[in-house]
Amino acid sequence: MDYIDLHTHSTASDGTFRPSELVQKAKAEGVSVLAITDHDTVDGVEEAQTWGRLLGIEVIGGVELSVNYNNQEMHILGYHVDRKNPLLLEGLHKLRHYRDIRNPLMIERLQKMGISITLEEVEEMARGQIVGRPHFAQVLMRKGIVSSTAEAFERFLGAGQAAYVKKEKLTPQEGIELLKQAGAIPVLAHPIYLEKQEKESFSAILGELVSYGLRGIEAYYPEHSAEDVKKFVSLAQEHHLLITGGSDFHGSNKPKTRLGRIMYNGKPIPSSVTKKMKECLLNV
Ligand code: AMP
Ligand code: ZN
Ligand code: FE
Ligand code: FE
């Protein structure tokens, strides 16, 4: 079986595998094309690509940006990104700054709830520059306050929960344009997480994103049912978009997700689909 996985996180953001380890794991899982798509950073790309060359795996350099769509969190993936593009690096710097504003406020909320936690502990857990909510979750787990990442999000960190503080984000247009000018192919990540799932309203959202330069949609994703996949594939066709898929692997920060196995209906995606995805991303 030939597997491809176009959505993965490393320790450069909130994954638990170093970029080199991610590529080694991909090799062990039989993956032939892997995209590294850390949140708000391209710091892991070079190491992952070096290891890709060593192990004979195609590694696509990518990034995942969070944008604000009418007060909802939306994620845009960018593939084949120029990791040295000055405007991109400036934009990513700004996104880290937004984290630097939010993170201490979340610590304050947790402390007010009587939890003994410091920003330093969370930063130490993150090791890199991107300090995200999954790192807060790990610290809460280590302290025995919660027993899983899911519980940490349900009780404290998820949108609307007691310790949640919204961070400032780019607009979808700004995010897509930032990726485009860095040579990247913008793709809508995990569409299932958006509120409007009814086909017509979803199509309107896609139309708007396409007008900014969106080029693809992540139709294959572990949380998508067979029905969802069908809907997103048909929407992709309607809007002439590339169809992609990925696991959103985060290592032990998302323990149920396996690298390289984007399952739906309990089965891996058909190799014909894998082949098409490979063509669309390798031949652009
Ligand atoms: P941040 O960018 O710091 O706001 O953190 C967002 C990240 O947290 C997402 O990209 C996911 O990796 C993770 N996340 C968000 N919601 C949940 C959840 N309910 N359970 C587990 N992880 C989550
Ligand atoms: Zn993440
Ligand atoms: Fe995401
Ligand atoms: Fe992701």
TrEMBL record:
> Is Hydrolase included in the keywords of this UniProt record?
yes
Q: Which GO terms describe its molecular function?
A: 5'-3' DNA exonuclease activity; 5'-3' RNA exonuclease activity; histidinol-phosphatase activity
Which Gene3D superfamilies would you find in this protein's record?
Answer: 1.10.150.650, Metal-dependent hydrolases
Limits of the Polymerase/histidinol phosphatase N-terminal domain: 4-69
What Pfam families is this protein classified in? PHP
Q: Give EC number(s), comma-separated.
A: 3.1.3.15
TM regions (residue ranges): none
* Protein name, as recorded: PHP domain-containing protein
User: Which keywords label this protein?
Assistant: Hydrolase
Kinase recorded as keyword: no
